[in-house]
Amino acid sequence: MAKCPECGGNMISRMKRKICETCGLSLTGSEYDKAWDKIREHTNDDAHHRHRMKMEYLKWYESSKKH
């Protein structure tokens, strides 16, 4: 079942649109795909940033133990 990109509710198909049962958001198929692509892109950027911060911390931690 499709999930709403705004609230995570269930999307139902009516005519050529997907409508959220919870918040009432109404999107065409292409609008729905674009909304989820944007969310995935943002999520990937956040994951990359977290990974980079962990690696920088590890590098700092390892260098501080040499003293």
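(the above was protein one; protein two follows)
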Amino acid sequence: MSKFGELIDVKIPVLLSFYTDWSDKSTAMHPILREVAAALGNKAKVIKIDVDKNKELSEALKVKDLPSLIIYMNGEMQWRQSGQLDANTLITKLKYYA
């Protein structure tokens, strides 16, 4: 979990996307997340987290539905939502926290 703290305690917004390979809805977000990351470059981080490989973190953050999207800024959770979103919505959210 200390690595998690290092990931989110930065001066740019960090979008975490929790997914599993067996969830079509969460894997459908992968190309959208790539688009968001490409659009924002170094102004934000986009990180995909496989809940099956990160059970402790997923449980600590109470991730129940997939995909679950969380934005952190300076180590603090700013926004959270479950379900699919389009790239423009995510870009707008991340720019708001930038």
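Reviewer note on protein two: The chain has one domain: 13-97.
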